[in-house]
């Protein structure tokens, strides 16, 4: 009987405690707190050195929501405000502001409460944005493309757009001559293809309104061919070279094979060595058709005879 009385007492104690908690949690409480506002989607032509601001506010919510709020670690009390979605206004100089109501709406959404339960200490949230310097630069494709056997890239890949406007600090912008893309990787290619490739914006050091470009790559079947290119100098000099031709081994697209002629190539002779009457002259391939891939050339030195 004694044990039964104790058990009955404990049951009623638990029920009364639970009821007391329910009553207390149903009441409203005012909690003073602070949230960090993180600004996102800053315009490309603006720079925000501090993209977070601390705002103070009061929560007038019931005990259930208060407990839920208390369980959020202080480091996680942050809301994101997109400047692409929320209107902001210029106050003066480089100072801008957004209405605190947008912040209240975001916090209310995260806590599953009404925005009217939040009282912001200030009517506006202020932040600074500085104008960046701009520059138009060409875009270059970075790629690691492995075509199928006997196939290769034909010509130079075309990009759309081929140039972009970048924004950044003056000292950074002055050093940039070209913006490269992220590496485009592909293997087993045997036909033309188009890919969308993101720009490499140097981990946010520079910005651009253009984030991706369209790359068009032509792929053709190639074959090897040897071209005999005459070695000559200016007409005012009568010089005979031994050998008198350079053999250029190259890769040529099958569709261009018939159109490749020695006239599309030229060989340069080291004229300083010629003037110094050195016994051997250095020669190099000076130009060739843009669709040709040069594999090797020979010779790299020639003998000569000046004809009087």
TL;DR of this structure?
It is built from five helices and 24 strands. The chain is α+β, with helices and mostly antiparallel strands and 308 residues long.
Please tell me about this protein's structure.
Strands 12, 16, 18, 20 and 23 form a 5-stranded antiparallel sheet that branches. Strands 4-1-3-7 form a 4-stranded mixed sheet. The termini are far apart. 18% of the residues lie in helices and 49% in strands. The protein has helices at residues 2-26, 63-70, 100-111, 170-173, 271-275; strands at 28-40, 46-47, 52-62, 78-82, 89-92, 95-99, 118-120, 124-128, 130-131, 133-140, 143-147, 151-160, 163-168, 179-180, 184-189, 193-198, 207-208, 212-230, 239-242, 245-253, 266-269, 281-287, 293-298, 301-306. A hairpin with a 2-residue loop joins strand 5 and strand 6. The protein has 3 domains: 24-131, RNA Polymerase Alpha Subunit, Chain A, domain 2; 133-221, RNA Polymerase Alpha Subunit, Chain A, domain 2 (Beta Complex), CATH 2.170.120.40; 223-306, RNA Polymerase Alpha Subunit, Chain A, domain 2 (Beta Complex). The protein is an alpha+beta fold.
């Amino acid at each position: 009987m004694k044990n039964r009385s104790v058990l009955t007492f404990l049951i009623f104690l638990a029920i009364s405690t639970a009821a007391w908690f329910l009553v207390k949690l149903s009441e409203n409480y005012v909690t003073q707190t602070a949230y960090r506002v993180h600004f996102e989607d800053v315009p490309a032509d603006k720079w925000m050195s501090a993209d977070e601001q601390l705002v103070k506010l009061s929560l007038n919510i019931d005990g259930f929501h208060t407990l839920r709020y208390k369980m959020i670690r202080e480091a996680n009390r942050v809301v994101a405000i997109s400047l692409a979605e929320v209107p902001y206004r210029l106050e003066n100089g480089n100072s801008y502001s957004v209405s605190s109501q947008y912040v209240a709406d975001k916090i209310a959404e995260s806590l599953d409460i009404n925005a009217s339960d939040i009282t912001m200490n200030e009517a506006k949230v202020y932040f600074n944005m500085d104008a960046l310097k701009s520059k138009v630069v060409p875009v270059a494709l970075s790629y690691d493309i492995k075509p199928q056997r006997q196939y290769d890239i034909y010509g130079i890949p075309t990009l759309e757009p081929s140039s972009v406007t970048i924004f950044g600090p003056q000292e950074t912008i002055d050093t940039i001559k070209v913006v490269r893309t992220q590496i485009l990787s592909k293997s087993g290619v045997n036909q033309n293809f188009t890919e969308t490739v993101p720009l490499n914006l140097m981990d946010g050091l520079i910005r651009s309104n253009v984030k991706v470009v369209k790359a068009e790559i032509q792929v053709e079947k190639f074959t090897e061919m040897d071209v005999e290119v005459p070695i000559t100098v200016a007409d005012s000099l009568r010089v005979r070279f031994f050998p008198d031709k350079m053999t250029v081994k190259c890769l040529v697209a099958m569709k261009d094979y018939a159109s490749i002629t020695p006239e599309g190539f030229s060989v340069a002779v080291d004229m300083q060595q010629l003037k110094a009457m050195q016994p051997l002259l250095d020669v190099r391939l000076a130009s060739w058709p843009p669709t040709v891939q040069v594999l090797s050339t020979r010779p790299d030195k020639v003998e000569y005879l000046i004809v009087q």
